[in-house]
Amino acid sequence: MSAGEATGARGATPAAGPPEIRLSLPSRLDYLEIIDKVIDGVADQMEFDGDQKDEIAISVLEACTNSIQHAHNHDPALLVEVTFHVLPDRLEVTVRDQGQGFDVELVEDAGAPENLLKPRGRGIFIMRSVMDEVRFDFSGPGTACTLVKIKRSPAADQDEATPRAGLDDPA
User: Fold this and answer.
1) Distance between CA atoms of residues 65 and 25, nearest Å
2) What is the mean pLDDT of residues 98-120?
3) How far is CA 58 from the centre of its chain?
4) What is the three-class DSSP state of 24?
5) Contact at 8 Å (CB) between 8 and 24?
6) How buried is residue 115: exposed, middle or buried, by Cβ count under 10 Å (0-12/13-18/19+)?
7) Among 3, 61, 65, 132, which lies 20 to 30 A Cα-Cα from 80?
């Protein structure tokens, strides 16, 4: 599939399973703007609120940036594939690259005192902080990073912010 081509376009035969949007883009940082616009459109369609949209965008763009910079070393001949799985209760976005992969256990803790002033190394920490789930898969060629954001109703968000009698009261 070429840059900017998406599955599920008008006139296409719908596939079984959840709606899916796929992008396959050369490893160039200036193409992140395209991905950002797709994120915005999908998040709007799914009715995520502003904060959730920002969390999705930050995480997906970070995963794509990691693929471009670290896995592909800015080689535009190597493609970054981004797949959006639109489900009734959540959005799952998978970013796949063609790189050698890495050991997640060796990623430095961005919150450790010795790492606080380092100018880099916070991407995975941020993704894990703002997404409901972050998974890495090294079983195929390259690395796949799947980011999950669960839809929450405004009422559920309000319920979480409201102390529950007997449960949240200090004893």
Assistant:
1) 12
2) 70
3) 8
4) strand
5) no
6) middle
7) 132
Q: Which amino acid is at 112?
A: A
CB–CB of 27/76 below 8 Å? Answer: yes
Q: Which two tokens stand for residue 58?
A: 């930050």
How far apart CA 25 and CA 121 sit, in angstroms, is 24
Per residue in 50-85, pLDDT (tens digit) is 999 999 999 999 999 999 999 999 999 999 999 999
CA-based torsion, 143, 51, 42, 120: positive or negative:
negative
How many Cβ atoms sit within 10 Å of the Cβ of residue 12? 9
Do 21 and 1 contact (CB within 8 A), yes or no? no
Q: Where are the beta strands (DSSP E) in 50-100?
A: 79-86, 90-96
Task: Locate 112 and state its tokens.
Answer: 């450790």
Give the Cα-Cα-Cα angle 15, 20, 82 (nearest 5 degrees): 140
* pLDDT higher at 131 or 161: 131
Res 13 pLDDT > 60:
no
What's the pLDDT at 140? 82
Residue 134 phi/psi, 5° resolution? -135, 120
Q: At what angle do helices 123-130 and 50-66 cross, to 10 degrees?
A: 150
| Distance, CA of 93 to CA of 39 (rounded, Å) | 9
